[in-house]
């Protein structure tokens, strides 16, 4: 347990001048600048030495310069002019590049194209298997046929008696049909509808 010295008094500061009357210690600033300069010089020397060592090692591994291995200055060549034929070939390559391709947007257009392909299959007649003469019918027609003919009735499954505390599972009706358009598709549909109204 420390005891305070009753004779110790806090240092009295003369604030009558309104500013600091003592000078900055120049020796501390000079020491810092000298240490900073020494550090900068040592760092530069070390960096130069490491560069020389790495350069010598690379030259040793590559061997002496010859007609196959020699540095070439490409700066006088300047920027090469673009070749339209090469650009068209690059365009063809990017168009025919196998999937998966890098997306040019955030995927909204890909989802829209997928839904359009699904709509074509769901809303139109198409061949499911031409060899067996199987036809895919529109979903609206399929629902009409199901409503007329009904679904086949499955044989009742014998269920074991419930254990103590168990309950029979209850299947809740889904709140949605499980399919919803994205906001991007809704915006596109609204823009298309507005454009068709303007033409009328």
What does this structure look like?
The chain is mostly helical. 46% of the residues lie in helices and 4% in strands. Among the domains are: 30-64; 108-149, no CATH class. Strand 1 and strand 2 form a beta hairpin. The longest helix is centred in the N-terminal third of the chain and has 37 residues, at 26-62.
**Terminal Cα span:** 96 Å
Helix count, DSSP H or I runs of 4 or more residues: 5
Mind describing the biggest β-sheet?
2 strands, antiparallel
Shape category: extended
- The helix fraction, in percent, is 40-55%
Strand portion: under 5%
Spatial sequence of strands, sheet with the most strands: 1-2
Alpha-carbon Rg, integer: 42 Å
Low-confidence stretches: none
Q: Averaging pLDDT over every residue, what do you get?
A: 79
Order of helices and strands: HHHEEHH
Number of strands: 2
Structural class, please? mainly alpha
Please give the structural blueprint.
Blueprint: H1 26-62, H2 84-95, H3 108-123, E1 126-129, E2 134-136, H4 139-149, H5 183-199
Antiparallel strand pairs: 1-2
Tag the structure with descriptive keywords:
200 residues, mainly alpha, 46% helix, extended, 4% strand, two-stranded antiparallel ribbon, 5 helices, 2 strands
Give a quick summary of the entry.
Helix content is 46%, strand content 4%.
């Amino acid at each position: 347990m420390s005891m305070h010295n009753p004779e110790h008094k806090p240092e009295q500061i003369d604030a009558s001048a309104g500013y600091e009357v003592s000078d900055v210690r120049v020796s501390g600033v000079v020491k810092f600048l000298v240490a900073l300069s020494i550090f900068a010089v040592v760092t530069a020397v070390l960096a130069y030495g490491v560069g020389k060592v790495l350069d010598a090692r690379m030259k040793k591994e590559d061997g002496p310069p010859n007609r196959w291995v020699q540095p070439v200055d490409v700066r006088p060549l300047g920027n090469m002019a673009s070749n339209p034929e090469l650009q068209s070939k690059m365009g063809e390559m990017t168009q025919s590049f196998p999937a998966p391709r890098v997306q040019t947007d955030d995927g909204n257009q890909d989802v829209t194209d997928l839904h359009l392909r699904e709509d074509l299959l769901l809303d139109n007649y198409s061949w499911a298997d031409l060899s067996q003469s199987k036809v895919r019918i529109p979903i609206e027609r399929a629902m009409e046929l199901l409503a007329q003919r009904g679904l086949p009735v499955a044989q009742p499954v014998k269920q074991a008696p419930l254990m103590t505390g168990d309950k029979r599972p209850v299947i809740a009706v889904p709140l949605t049909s499980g399919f919803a358009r994205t906001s991007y598709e809704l915006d596109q549909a609204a823009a298309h509808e507005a454009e068709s109204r303007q033409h009328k």
